[in-house]
Amino acid sequence: MLAAIILAIAVVLAVAGVAALVVPRSRHAGPPATRAERRLQPADATAEGARIVSEARGAALRTREAALDELAARRASVESGEAVLTERDRHLRERRRVFDDRRFAFKKRREEIDARRAALTDERQEIAASVARTADLDHDAAVRAVLERLQAELEAEHASRVEAAIADMIGDVDVTAAIHITQAIERQDASNVDAAPRMAPFSLESLDEHARERLRNALTVIADTTGMELGIDGEKAQATLRGTDPVGREIARQAAIEVVERRLQAAEVPPLLERTRSATRRRITDLGERALWEMQMDGRPELADLIGTLHYRFSYGQNALLHCQETGYLCSSLAAELGLPQETAREAGMLHDVGKAVDHDVEGVHAIIGGELLRVLGADPAIVHAVKAHHFDEEPETELAMLTICADAISASRPGARRDTLAAYLARLEQLQTIATRHDGVERAFPLQAGRELRIFVKASQVKDSDMPPLTAEIAREIESEMQYPGVVKVTVIREASATATAPAQIVPVRDVAEPASTRTEDTVNGVPDSNVTAPDG
User: Fold this and answer.
1) pLDDT higher than 90, residue 360
2) Given this model, what pLDDT does residue 345 score?
3) pLDDT mean over 479-484
4) Cα separation of 535 and 494, whole Å?
5) What percentage of the chain carries pLDDT values higher than 90?
6) Smallest Cα–Cα separation from 48: which of 70, 31, 23?
7) Fold that domain 428-536 belongs to in CATH
8) In this structure, how many other beta carbons lie within 10 angstroms of the beta carbon of residue 259?
9) Do 324 and 387 form a contact (C-beta atoms < 8 A)?
10) Spatial separation of the C-alpha atoms in residues 257 and 415, rounded to whole Å
11) What fold characterizes domain 202-413?
12) Average pLDDT of the chain?
């Protein structure tokens, strides 16, 4: 285009030069012209110049259009070439990716083949070594090797063979076991008659200030002498003696009742405690000997004292002595059904919790304590092992141990076995709730399973997920330090955030009926954001 413009300018300049040369030449050459002819010569020159300029301009435009067409053609060619190159590049990249995938798969397959080849080589070497060893065996060694292999195969199939044999003999194992257990429970009624005494609070409401002070002094002497703890509740006007020693608790209970009834002073308490202690010891020995006689058992006098002490020991309201007797009867009944020695089973069940008589004085779990006591007293080693293993503190290795475990679980979990006084039960649940709800962010707390589990719901807006484990551990430590309870309390903290949205409740105009409900729903209730927070559990 630039070249055409330059060409047009050059043509115009050339025409102007020619016109300038023509005029002087007309003045000097030839005969003189007329005035009209002289006037026509410049006009002809101008027209000729205009024609030349027009032709030059047309030529320049044609050249420009040709140049533009050529440029467009070349640009289209370049773009087509670029598209082809782009497509080739994409195709090459795709092929490169496929190639990389195949190379990776090939490499992995090669590694698997190498691993299998190495394993095959090791197997061949092992087979060769085994063949070499077998070739060197004599007849007796070969027989032993075959028998050992058969023994291993039989042991692997033993469980399935036993199950199949039992199924052929008695049918469904679960149904048959449930029938035997039910029959064994129905044959026992000892734990339903529990006349063991329990500690109860002493009311101070009807006493004047002087009488209350005298009673507090007397109860303080009793608590100090028997190792109990005296608790005074000013709001309920009650005094309570608490302790872990079952014998000391019973001595304190009897002495406190006599102090209240006779209105004794502190100076009169020590002789009373001596008489009460002697009477309680005789009562314990009598209870132990009677229990051993009922269970048809023999033993040293110390064993009778231990058994009698269990009469004053409770576990979630279940009397420990009656629980041991019931476990002995259940263990004997189950042993009879299985064809095992009934007498040994009855003794193991009766003595399984003997460690609870002294577990408040001796460090350790009552199963191990009881087993060591029985070992010292000369009990059968099979019974000692069953007692130690009845809570899996020692791995059970005998059928007697498994029978003891089953009988203990049946006696403790049967309906109506473990009951507690309503006041103590409610106090324990209330104390669990108090410990949980006094922490910031706790919304609700629910004791479950008679206080064995505490399920706590926290507010999601105040307690974060990272705060839940420390909160759970802190509540568990407080329960352990502030409460007296048997067994284990499981603490579970739940944190859950939920949000609800309510559509407007007013009548919708006719023009809005066709409007989708989703466009009219708001995440607020009466203009206020609504969110419900709940929280957990173990």
Assistant:
1) no
2) 92
3) 80
4) 4
5) 21
6) 23
7) GMP Synthetase; Chain A, domain 3 (3.30.300)
8) 24
9) no
10) 33
11) Hypothetical protein af1432 (1.10.3210)
12) 79
**Per-residue pLDDT tens for 203-244?**
777 778 888 888 888 888 888 888 888 888 777 778 888 887
Name every residue whose Cβ is closer than 8 Å to that of residue 337 and which is 6 or more positions away in sequence: 180, 184
- Spell out the SS3 assignment of 196-265: CCCCCCEECCCCCHHHHHHHHHHHHHHHHHHCCEEEEECCCCEEEEECCCHHHHHHHHHHHHHHHHHCCC
Tokens 């009219």, located at residue: 520
Residue 370: what residue type? G
Nearest residue to 294 via CA among 305, 307, 284: 307
Provide the residue ranges of all domains of the chain, joining segments of one domain with +. Answer: 1-28+35-82, 202-413, 428-536
Residue 228: both structure tokens together: 């109990």
Which tokens go with 327? 């476990």
Q: How far apart are the first and last CA of the chain?
A: 88
Task: Please work out, in degrees rounded to the nearest 5, the angle formed at the alpha carbon of residue 334 by the alpha carbons of 331 and 337.
Answer: 150
For residue 103, is pLDDT > 70?
A: yes
Residues paired with 445 in a beta bridge: 456
Confidence of residue 532 (pLDDT cuts 50, 70, 90): very low
